[in-house]
Design brief:
A: mainly alpha, B: mainly beta, 24-stranded mixed β-sheet, 1 helix, 24 strands
Chain lengths: ~240, ~290
């Protein structure tokens, strides 16, 4: 079977798996030419590599701050998804695995991206560099007043990743039973509304910790739903 | 010599269409398998109703009804002979291009000590009376579970979830569906939905942790006056309403001031505050009232 570029889908998936297997070593300085080569050919893996590079470069400037428990849960879920270890009674990862038969590099990539998003939205606002002060407020830093969280800069790559995932979903959903498609559509509409509302709240009130928390959660759920949909085999 | 030949021809003419008709119709499979007292039973279906009931026998009795001969029910027992510790029931669609009705209904009677894993993406699941664990996943189906004593892990994207009298750890999540928890005796409950509602009716166990999260839906807690719990309720854009019939001692320490962004929040202790109840919603209303 060929994809839109005329490449063999199975071949590309293997290349993606190889990319997943080697990218960590590459980022730690290992000599992995296949990673660069594949990232230049595969848009999806290219975005993931760009995300990871951005995180590495920006994390160098980060101070240590204990992230909320959800972040650790996400990391754990990602590791579980990668098969590093298994925990009985896991979260959505276990749920996704119930609904799927094949692990997908895309899903693992998205979960990894979610960890990045969760980290970037969970750390104190301001750690990623200069921010613009909200209109009508002074930028005077106090214990109460926090700078606006950056939800458009470092997350552009993630938004791109989710966008690509959505593109794949749009192509894939035509093969779903109407009832299944309807369920996924309804859930995505609901999550999109949540994301929009939370983003608006964060923009209006940059110090709104709850809105930021909900924004992360909505992104997480959306990517998880998309991953589950992409791996849904309908058997 | 000619007459018998004619007769056979007639018989074939009659039998062949009947056979085709029979093959095209629904089929029923019934199996009984001897098991250990605590077997693990997994079931993977596509669509249809799945009903699982615990009984006091060490055997599994399964009845399935498929809508099409293009669907096959596969049963695997481990070990294959003697008392099974593990059984897999799997629905196979024999023709991947099949467009007709893919429904398979299952009815299982299982030992009380069983643990079950049910995957029924497009169908409903009902589980009654189990002492083991239950894990259920669906995309759009409704999930109803009652009297499960083990860990309960229930996930659906669009379906509603109802859990009656669970007594083990509860994890329940949906995106569009509503969650309903009635008379739980669990000390660990973690449940969430994005746009559905959450309804909790019952007491809270001492030292228990109850975490209910919603986005745009409402959360309603109905609990007896004798319940003992600390309440943390926060809504970014909605309201937190506590019924006058249930009195709280508000937390006064600065650490319990409303979190940044919470348009409405409440931190208080009811009775001795033995359990921890954490309720969060973004734009929904959180309401706590006394059980009449």
């Amino acid at each position: 079977m060929l994809d839109e570029k005329g490449e063999h889908v199975t071949g590309r998936r293997e290349a993606c798996r190889l990319f997943d297997a080697q990218v960590a070593d590459y980022l730690e300085g290992g000599d992995r030419p296949a990673v660069i080569a594949h990232a230049s050919e595969c848009a999806f893996c290219g975005v993931i590599l760009a995300d990871l590079r951005a995180v590495i470069s920006e994390s160098a400037a980060l101070g240590f701050e204990e992230p909320p428990p959800r972040v650790w849960a996400n990391i754990r879920a990602t590791l579980e998804a990668e098969g590093v270890f298994r925990e009985p009674g896991g979260w959505w990862t276990r749920w996704v695995s119930h609904l799927t038969s094949l692990p997908s590099p895309a899903a693992v990539g998205v979960l990894a991206s979610l960890v990045i998003l969760a980290l970037s939205l969970s750390v104190s606002p301001g750690v990623f560099g200069p921010r613009t002060a909200p209109a009508g407020r002074t930028a005077k830093p106090t214990a109460e007043a926090v700078a606006p969280p950056q939800i458009s800069g470092e997350d552009i790559a993630l938004a791109e990743t989710i966008k690509e995932l959505e593109g794949s979903y749009q192509a894939r959903k035509t093969s779903f039973e109407p009832a299944v498609e309807d369920t996924y559509e309804r859930s995505l509409v609901s999550l999109n509304n949540s994301i929009r509302e939370a983003r608006d709240s964060v923009k209006e009130e940059p110090g709104n910790a709850l809105a930021r928390e909900y924004l992360v959660a909505a992104y997480e759920q959306k990517a998880e739903v998309l991953s589950a949909a992409l791996e849904y085999d309908g058997r | 010599m000619g007459r018998p030949g004619v007769s056979w021809t007639k018989i074939w003419v009659l039998l062949v269409p009947l056979g085709v008709l029979g093959a095209a119709g629904p089929s029923r499979v019934e199996r009984t398998i001897e098991t250990s007292a605590n077997p693990l039973i997994s079931l993977s279906n596509v669509t249809g109703r799945v009903t699982v009931k615990g009984w006091d026998k060490t055997r599994v009795h399964m009845v399935s009804a498929t809508a099409s001969p293009q669907i096959e029910v596969d049963v695997e027992a481990f070990p294959p002979k003697g008392q099974a510790d593990k059984i897999h029931f799997t629905t196979h669609i024999l023709d991947s291009q099949m467009t007709g009705d893919k429904t398979t209904d299952y009815s299982l009677d299982v030992p009380l000590g069983s643990s079950v894993e049910i995957r029924n993406p497009e169908g409903s699941v009902q589980i009654q009376t189990l002492q083991g664990e239950a894990s259920v996943a669906s995309v759009g189906g409704t999930i109803a579970v009652s009297d499960v004593a083990g860990h309960l892990d229930v996930r659906t994207i669009g379906g509603d979830i109802e859990m009656v009298r669970p007594s083990g750890r509860v994890e329940a999540h949906s995106i569009c569906g509503s969650l309903r928890l009635v008379s739980p005796t669990s000390s660990r409950v973690r449940a969430g939905t994005t746009s559905g509602k959450i309804f909790y009716e019952g007491d809270f166990l001492p030292d228990g942790n109850y975490e209910l999260t919603d986005y745009s839906g409402d959360i309603e807690i109905v609990t007896p006056a004798s319940a003992s719990f600390e309440l943390s309720a926060r809504s970014a854009r909605g309201k937190v309403i506590t019924d006058a019939g249930i009195s709280f001692t508000p937390k006064r320490h600065a650490a319990f001031r409303p979190p940044s962004g919470a348009s409405s929040s409440f931190f208080g202790t009811h009775n001795e505050g033995k359990a921890n109840v954490d309720l969060r919603s973004f734009s929904g209303t959180i309401r706590v009232r006394r059980l009449p």
